[in-house]
């Protein structure tokens, strides 16, 4: 049984990917410092798959701990989620973001190189495109100057990995996520924002649950059909499955080059108002919302051209927006 290290495996996307890895017969080892997750997610994963992943509680900024992990665990691949990911927070705390997101990547790659671990999947983001010149966005779209330190760490991360693959046996795939939403059908794992949600869907579900008084829609003066910004919302289970397909591509050495990039999105753009109306339709809940100023750093529209993921990776999103929104609401209802 192939052993896969999942860093940040107790997080939102990480935990859903661990479930899919176990469903595919991989043995999973998780490193997570619980900075943006809780330990009970480990039990929730186990309750879904009946297989308890091995769990290691340490910070990837601890180089000695990373070295010790790789010298005592023989693994076949790494899926690297662990990183700070709040766009706004990264603007206020750039040094924390560069230290956390870059040093941890470097230590992981150093140990993979030293212990000859070949397969690496990197959690990247469509944020590297900024406001793309053309829609839908292909992998050849210009990678623009980052609008935030968070986005810059994804851009720099890809460059660091690419350079490392040139001087080692490591072969890597960067998956550029669009907007991950929803939760596993069991409603046992999902998005657990700490404090006031930055992202749209947790704010929507908390408003529907009466935790938040009303949703602020950041801008209705965008050059879009209904004036609100457009994004590509992808079900987190579809996103998790893309990681399995990418990992198998590397393990089976089917990659065309040692550094590949794939856009992972639904391929459909939806506006904030469309999200609100879809959520109200699938849940029967009425959402309180108001229009306010645009949020700094937001772009007008982004949605993926998923041709390469389909033809090269053999992956497409299968779950609908309604599936995702309903699963997000089911998950919210399990939270206290
Ligand atoms: C979506 C839309 C907001 C909240 C970012 C990162 C991306 C990834 C996902 C980490 C936008 C609007 C939001 C609210 C609103 N991050 N909105 N009211 O900004 O597209 O992407 O998060 O992996 O890398 O760039 O996601 O969910 O914050 O916003 O109107 O209370 O919803 O303006 O149009 P975003 P988001």
List the topology elements:
Blueprint: E1 3-7, H1 12-23, E2 27-31, H2 40-49, E3 54-56, H3 63-72, E4 77-80, H4 87-92, H5 94-114, E5 119-125, H6 149-166, E6 171-177, E7 179-181, H7 200-208, E8 215-218, E9 230-231, E10 233-235, H8 236-251, E11 259-264, E12 270-271, H9 272-283, E13 289-292, H10 307-313, H11 321-332
Helix pairs in contact: 1-2, 1-8, 3-5, 5-6, 7-11, 9-11
The structure holds UDP-4-deoxy-4-formamido-beta-L-arabinopyranose.
UDP-4-deoxy-4-formamido-beta-L-arabinopyranose binds at residues 85, 87, 125, 127, 179, 198-200, 203, 215-218, 229, 231, 272, 295, 298.
How many strands, which pairing sense, and closed or not: the largest β-sheet?
Answer: 7 strands, parallel
Q: In order across it, which strands form the biggest sheet?
A: 3-2-1-4-5-6-11
CATH architecture of the domain at 3-181 and 236-265 and 306-317: 3-Layer(aba) Sandwich
- Note the overall shape: globular
The pLDDT mean sits at 97
For the record, give the distance between the C-alpha atoms at the N and C termini, rounded to a whole number. Answer: 38 Å
Low-confidence stretches: none
Alpha-beta content class = alpha/beta
DSSP helical segment count: 11
Helix content: 25-40%
Write down the Rg: 19 Å
The percentage of residues in β strands lies in 15-25%
Tally the beta strands.
13
- What is the CATH level 1 assignment of the domain at 3-181 and 236-265 and 306-317? Alpha Beta
Secondary-structure element series: EHEHEHEHHEHEEHEEEHEEHEHH
- The name of the CATH topology of the domain at 3-181 and 236-265 and 306-317 is Rossmann fold
The CATH superfamily of the domain at 3-181 and 236-265 and 306-317 is known as NAD(P)-binding Rossmann-like Domain
Bound molecules: UDP-4-deoxy-4-formamido-beta-L-arabinopyranose
């Amino acid at each position: 049984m192939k052993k896969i290290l999942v860093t940040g495996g107790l997080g939102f996307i990480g935990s859903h990917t661990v479930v899919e890895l176990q469903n595919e017969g991989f043995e999973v080892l998780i490193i997570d410092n619980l900075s943006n997750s809780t330990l009970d997610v480990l039990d929730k994963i186990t309750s879904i798959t009946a297989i308890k992943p091995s769990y290691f509680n340490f910070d990837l900024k601890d180089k000695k701990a990373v070295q010790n992990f790789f010298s005592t665990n023989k693994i076949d691949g790494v899926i690297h989620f662990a990183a700070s990911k709040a766009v706004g927070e990264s603007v206020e705390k750039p040094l924390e973001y560069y230290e956390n997101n870059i040093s941890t990547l470097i230590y992981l790659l150093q140990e993979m190189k030293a212990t000859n671990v070949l397969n690496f999947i990197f959690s990247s983001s469509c944020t590297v495109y900024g406001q793309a010149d053309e829609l839908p966005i292909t992998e050849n779209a210009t990678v623009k100057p980052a609008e935030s330190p968070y986005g810059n760490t994804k851009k720099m991360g890809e460059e660091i990995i690419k350079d490392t693959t040139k001087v080692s046996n490591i072969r890597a795939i960067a998956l550029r996520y669009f907007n991950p939403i929803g939760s596993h059908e069991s409603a046992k794992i999902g998005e657990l924002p700490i404090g006031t949600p930055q992202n749209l869907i947790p704010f929507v579900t908390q408003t529907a649950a009466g935790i938040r008084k009303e949703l602020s829609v950041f801008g209705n003066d965008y050059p879009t059909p209904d004036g609100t910004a457009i994004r590509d919302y992808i079900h987190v289970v579809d996103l998790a499955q893309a990681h399995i397909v990418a990992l198998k591509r590397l393990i089976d050495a089917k990659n065309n080059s040692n550094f590949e990039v794939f856009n992972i999105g639904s391929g459909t753009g939806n506006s904030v108002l469309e999200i609100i109306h879809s959520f109200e339709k699938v849940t029967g809940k009425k959402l309180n919302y108001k229009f306010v100023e645009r949020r700094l750093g937001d772009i007008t529209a982004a949605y993926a051209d998923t041709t390469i993921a389909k033809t090269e990776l053999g992956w497409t999103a299968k779950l609908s927006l309604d599936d995702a929104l309903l699963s997000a609401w089911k998950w919210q209802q399990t939270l206290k």
